[in-house]
Amino acid sequence: MKKILIGLTVIVLIVVAGLVYVYVNLDNIVKSTIEEAGTRVTLADVSVDSVAIDTTQDSAAINGLIVGNPDGFNTDYAFSLGNISVRLDGSTLTSDTIRVIEVIIAAPSVTYELGNNTSNIATIQRNVESFVQRVSGPTGAGGADGAEDASSENASGTKVIIDNVYIRDGDVSVSAGFLQGKKMSVGLPEIHLKDVGKEDNGATPAEVAGEILTAINTSVFKSVSSLNVDGLMQGVGDLSKGVMGAVGGAASGSGGKIKDGADALGGAVKGLFGGSSDKAE
């Protein structure tokens, strides 16, 4: 009997020590979770400078969250989300569906990089959508890795409803290899989403991320579409003139082809920026 009591005491002490460890290291645990889950969902490196959780106020602050680029893109990042503040309904923290009162993303910076007939933003969105489909679709639809992700995602069973999401004071820059380092920037209109996940009585974190990313993608596309693409393409035109001057009159035919190529390139860029804003490619 004494041995049993000693064993139970040891187990209780281990549990208490574990809870204390989690409580003391909660910020770092959440930080690591965001980085690991974010990287798995977006297929781009996700990093966070710091996380500060105030359990007495049911609030959290996430600072310096950066989403890098998928393979094939060269800019430093796709999203730098600045400061994110979150307010929770503390009474729902132990329930299957957590209510988030408000999420504010302040001063995000978006780099819209064109390449391979698509963009880094559209690629990340497709990666998120693919992950959500693997999680919510038939078992095994995404292969062994997809099934493992789905099992991991569904294991917690926790869903989220967000009353309000605000994205404020953001900006977006356009970049592409053929622009020779030139960029154009434009402000990002404020985005306000309401009742995220409410229609389905809660959404998985991946589904919430997908909905927010879709809203950002649409806003980015509209902002980029308003840029003066003719001005942006001036650098390409100047480049073709320089080549034409260097080769002289003997290469005038080739120079004409270069100019035609630059004009065609400009048309292609306008096509990317001038399509439907429902889906940014």
Plain-language structure description:
The longest helix is centred in the N-terminal third of the chain and has 23 residues, at 2-24. This protein folds into two domains: 2-226, no CATH class; 228-281, no CATH class. The protein has eight helices and 13 strands. It has helices spanning 2-24, 26-42, 120-136, 143-155, 205-225, 229-232, 234-247, 252-274; strands spanning 46-47, 50-54, 59-63, 66-67, 79-80, 83-88, 97-106, 109-115, 118-119, 159-168, 170-176, 184-188, 191-196. β8 (109-115) and β9 form a beta hairpin. Strands 1, 4, 5, 8, 9, 11 and 12 form a seven-stranded mixed beta sheet that branches. The protein starts with a helix and ends in a 7-residue tail after the last helix. With 281 residues, it is of the alpha+beta class. α3 (120-136) packs across α4 (143-155), α3 (120-136) packs antiparallel against α5 (205-225) and α7 (234-247) packs antiparallel against α8.
